[in-house]
Amino acid sequence: MKIVVIGGTGLIGSKLVGNLRERGHDVLAAAPNTGVNTITREGLAEALNGADVVVDVANAPVWEDKAVLDFFETSGRNLLAAEAAAGVRHHIALSIVGSERLPDNGYFRAKVAQENLIKASGIPYTILRATQFFEFVGGIAQSATAGQEIRLSPALIQPIASDDVAEALADVAVALPVNGTIEIAGPEAIPLDELVRRFLRATEDQRKVLPDVHARYFGAVLDDQSLTPGDNPRIGAIRFEDWLGRQAAG
Ligand SMILES: NC(=O)c1ccc[n+]([C@@H]2O[C@H](COP(=O)([O-])OP(=O)(O)OC[C@H]3O[C@@H](n4cnc5c(N)ncnc54)[C@H](OP(=O)(O)O)[C@@H]3O)[C@@H](O)[C@H]2O)c1
């Protein structure tokens, strides 16, 4: 089976490509630095030639509200049109748990726009919605830092290891399309301020985390349902503490 991974050189994409190759599939890692660009369409038709399945794990290079919306809309339109022409029989995309619940977050609005294009495309699809990656926790801390203080909501978050996301995507890629959405989350729901505190402790970072129910998460106020999954999500195996330990061990 030929599987094209759009964004196949990124954090998730490179793990997914490795995982699917180990399972014996013919996998193409597609990204601008391998000559495939979903914005300019460079190399796109050639990459999709003979493809059975496409997994889209591309990410926007710029996260400013308008730029990120333009990226996911243009990339989504170009990719889905090329897939229709190539006769692709399963489109898979990686989205984010709770995207529709936080319209004040421009990145989430762009992911909802990406999902809507997929649902309207007529191509059989599966959307996998993941919670925040462990690898993203440092970025959350950075986004909320002022001086030596980090103000964060104590709302629950249920982050996941990128390895677990890649494993789930590989399972989805070799299964039939569900024409719907599946959620995946990490094994533990943790207050966001506490999650970042644990990360800073493990990385010997002296910044201080202050709980603040009004603190915005990339523009949005959170509650315990904002970033946590609904009923019956798939649960990743790797715990945050174990992941932190592995990072420290290099
Ligand atoms: N971060 C989170 O916590 C989280 C949670 C849930 C879902 N997600 C979703 O997970 C997905 C993957 O994220 P990631 O962290 O693995 O991303 P990443 O490491 O930033 O990788 C992005 C990939 O997209 C490629 N790309 C960029 N522009 C492209 C274009 N015009 N055409 C084709 N490919 C292009 C990049 O290629 P180059 O290197 O050549 O530019 C790279 O391979 C994203 O869609 C994100 O929304 C993220």
Automatic annotation (TrEMBL):
InterPro entries to which the protein is assigned, alphabetical: NAD(P)-bd_dom (IPR016040), NAD(P)-bd_dom_sf (IPR036291), NmrA-like_oxidored (IPR051164)
SUPFAM superfamilies hit by this protein: NAD(P)-binding Rossmann-fold domains (SSF51735)
Domain of life assignment: Bacteria
Keywords linked to the UniProt accession: NADP
Pfam families per UniProt: NAD_binding_10
Domain called NAD(P)-binding: residue spans: 7-172
Name by which UniProt lists this protein: NAD(P)H-binding protein
Source organism: Sinorhizobium medicae
